[in-house]
Amino acid sequence: MEKNRDVGKILLKINSQYYEKGMKNISIQLKGVRKGKIAEMDRKVIIPQIIRSKEYNIFEKQFLKNIDDEIKNIAKQDKVQEIVNNPKANFYTYEDFDKELLYLYLFSLNDEKYDDILQELLELVCNEKEVERDTKEKEIQRLKDKCEDYEKEIEQLKTISRQRKEKIKELEIKSNILTEEFDKLKLENEDLKRQVEEKEKRIEEYESKIKPVVEEEIEKNKVVVIGKETSLTAIQEENIDKILLEEFSEELLHVYDKFLIVKKNISIGNLRKIKKMLGDRGILCENDDEVNKYIISMEAKYENRSN
């Protein structure tokens, strides 16, 4: 079921042209949904139903088959094949691709060695706070719809016969319970929105305070090399700072402009954390030679600008 939910999140975000093509001629049967109407329904409504359906596996195969041409096209690309053949070494090369389509392709390979990349892609595609809030809102809407259905049914029963009072009373009780749950969830949702707004406001205030400090402290083109002790022995430039991986911290973001990370002997997990923290300012290097070449080319570029 966890796998179904992950694929469902991707399908809620995937480009419309892929989604519409994938939903054509889906032949599964869903309770309360007329045959042939699945593709016409809003994906936010139909995808959660499909995920919970016993026919999900059939749907999954049909959907992937419908977009087989798109999956084959992305599979032919050299960078994608690099990921397939050696996912750990090429962990970050997926960033320029259509992430939802790349996820479905790697998922279709059904190999555990891609689990880390699939999880990373899922986190990039789906903001977890947004997913949590959407889930709350969907639950609120579901309860609201049920309340309206029960109220309509109550009115119908009242007009049909006074002898149905017991049934009406039972439905009124259910409606009241659902209304209470709805009101409770509504309050929780409003509270959650307030918390998010407060956090966003604090972040904005913090960024406005720290930005001048950061701009003042960081020197243009100031570079530091980060790596294991055994990976920094061949750095030729004396004026380039070298920091051991164990000494790296967020405070250094306010000191250096660029960060060269020597990948040798650093785990994938640590590389992912560092890359996420540094963003565009982090440059991955295979070894010391690659670091030296980059520094030389950077200095040459700087000298040309000066001249």
Features:
307 residues, four-stranded parallel beta sheet, 3 domains, mainly alpha
Can you walk me through this structure?
It is a single chain. This protein is mostly helical. It has 3 domains: 2-125, no CATH class; 128-216; 223-306. It has helices spanning 2-13, 16-22, 43-52, 56-66, 68-75, 78-85, 99-108, 115-125, 128-160, 165-217, 268-278, 288-306; strands at residues 223-227, 241-244, 258-262, 282-285. The chain has a 4-stranded parallel β-sheet. Strand 3 (258-262), helix 11 (268-278) and strand 4 (282-285) form a beta-alpha-beta unit. The longest helix is centred in the middle third of the chain and has 53 residues, at 165-217. The radius of gyration is 27 Å and the shape is elongated. The protein starts with a helix and ends with a helix. The relative contact order is 0.06.
Report the sheet-strand fraction: 5-15%
Q: Helix-strand pattern, N to C?
A: HHHHHHHHHHEEEHEH
- Compute the number of strand runs: 4
Q: Give the CA-CA distance, first to last residue.
A: 63 Å
**Gyration radius from CA atoms, angstroms:** 27 Å
Strand order of the largest sheet: 2-1-3-4
Structural classification: mainly alpha
Instruction: Specify the overall morphology.
Output: elongated
> How many separate structural domains?
3
Largest sheet descriptor:
4 strands, parallel
Q: Work out the helicity level.
A: 55-70%
Q: Enumerate how many helices there are, as a single number.
A: 12
Summarize model confidence as the mean pLDDT.
81
Low-pLDDT parts are none
